[in-house]
TrEMBL record:
Zn(2+) 2 binds at residues 8, 60, 104, 133. Keywords: Aminopeptidase, Hydrolase, Metal-binding, Protease, Zinc. The active site is at 115 (nucleophile). It comes from Salipaludibacillus neizhouensis. This is Aminopeptidase.
Amino acid sequence: MKLYLSVDMEGISGLVDSTFVDSSSRNYRRGQEMMTQEANHVIEAAFSKDCYEVVVNDSHSKMNNLLIEELHSEAKLIAGDVKPFAMVQGLDDSFGGAMFIGYHARAAKAGVMSHTMTFGVHNMWVNDVEVGELGLNAYVAGHFGVPLLMVAGDDETAKEAKQLIPNVTTAIVKEQQSRSAAICLTPAKTKELLHEKTKEAIENAAQVKPLVPPENPTLKIEFTNYGEAEWASLMPGTVLEEGTTIVSFQAKDILEAYRAMVVMTELAMKTAFV
């Protein structure tokens, strides 16, 4: 199997607040090391189960967090920004499966550092399905016929994954206590769990179907304030729903919807909070 691995940061064990995931904060280097270690545990297990290629996409913030000098020597790394498809850059129909590691729950839900793309997003929908990063990225994988085999993160992320994708394997590396506290597995126990769950997910691959996105989907993003919605609605083709902070976009397919999301959220971040 050729395996695609999208690695975020907030769902890594031991990382419980912004000091671990913000490049200007004191714990960030520790966060990078633990993020790279968890990626390596999955890569090692994947190669042991006859995966012949593993492509890793750094999927957090500026997407330059994984320490390539410490990454498994046989993996290939997609790093850096700007990426048209952000957290799923490079994913196509050549892959037999995908895994999302270090993922977190969607915005406005319980979970360690829960959010969706930026802190300006309150809710996001594809048609009538509420999605976060996990769901939207899984839809892109499904567009290419690629099943999401495993999701690793906290317990709330695991619940979200199971609601969307029947038979998906989940690896719970921490249990949320609040948005900035968790009961965390030690690195040694995390290694054991990720080895076990990665192998289990590959063995179970035939039982997982791709999350096929709707045709001509409508993407809706509810922003946290009106200024963000105003900025997002400057993108051609969008509609700002009257009396709300919801901006909608009718897309030809999920790929266009994804790129619209990237543009809308980037525009929204221009809002000044004064």
